[in-house]
Amino acid sequence: MAKIYYVGDWAVLTGPVFAETPFHYSAKGLDIFNYGKWLKEALEKNGEHEVNSVSAWDFYNKLGPGDYERILEEYDIIVYSDVDSKLFQLAPSFFDRQKFGSEVLTFPDRIRLTVEAAHNGTHFMFLGGWYSFNGELGKGGWGRTRLREILPVQCLDIEDLIESTEGFKFKLTEAGRSAFQDIDLSDCPPIMGYNQTRIIKEGKVLMKFEETNDPALITRRVGNGNVLAYTSDPAPHWACNFVYWEQYGAFWKRCVSLVLE
Predict the structure, then answer these.
(1) Rounded CA gap, 120 and 54, in Å?
(2) Which has the higher per-residue pLDDT, 92 or 130?
(3) Which has the closest alpha carbon to 114: 82, 87, 153, 94?
(4) How far apart are CA 238 and CA 161, in angstroms?
(5) Is residue 29 predicted with pLDDT exceeding 80?
(6) Measured at the alpha carbon of residue 43, what is the angle toward residues 135 and 161, in degrees to the nearest 5?
(7) Strands, DSSP E only, in the chain?
(8) pLDDT per residue over 133-162, tens digit each?
(9) Before 119, cis peptide (omega within 30)?
(10) Is pLDDT larger for residue 168 or for residue 101?
């Protein structure tokens, strides 16, 4: 059983605007969702894994001194989905004017801690979304940080959202056919969008999108840790069909197994 810390895929509604991180907002509709419930439930089914699902704003606001270091030590896998780089690079106290001039405001660098943890054996899964990779209007910003040192792909320097109302299908590579030989992808429903990225020599591409040949699922060894990137979202809207696929749970449990290998 893996102990998994899953950050992101929550939204708070303020009128017709969804707030998914402390820094960015998107007009999407009038419903409220815990978007992370599908992935959490899939991984925890039958007691196979334990998932602590945390909103982006709690990750940003509620971790005190030493808490992130403790999480990196205690959990086997850290998952980030729709988590923009500002949540790593900034701290709430930078915006607390009562503290200005009373002390020097610096904090441990969560990007550095993440990179070091990967080398030391913590495993990571970086999942797609409007605030992942480079993201909508560059809001994700992962490639502009040292996260690029451990990602299995290269982020674009421009907005990277590729979307279609007709959707995209998975295509396994030779390495992917071996990794997913027990999962039939032929009846997988279309994926409604993804973050476009570039393949790098350090990454092992397991899946591509059939229509564009862009990478969909990629792994990489970093020091003693494994890192997996899935360039689409595990939750709606890109996964509005995917989450109801009969083998959705099996797919994600296989991804976890790949990371733990």
Answers:
(1) 23
(2) 130
(3) 87
(4) 11
(5) no
(6) 15
(7) 3-8, 12-14, 17-19, 25-27, 50-54, 77-81, 123-127, 153-155, 161-168, 170-172, 191-195, 197-199, 204-209, 215-222, 225-230
(8) 999 999 999 999 999 999 999 999 999 999
(9) no
(10) 168
Distance (Å) of CA 207 to CA 34, 121, 123, 130, 230: 27, 24, 20, 20, 9
Separation CA 261–CA 258 (nearest Å):
5
The one-letter amino acid code at 22 reads: P
Contact 188, 227 (CB under 8 A): no
Q: Which domains does the chain have, with CATH numbers?
A: 3-260 (3.40.50.880)
| Rounded percentage of the chain residues whose pLDDT exceeds 70 | 89
Residue type, 70: R
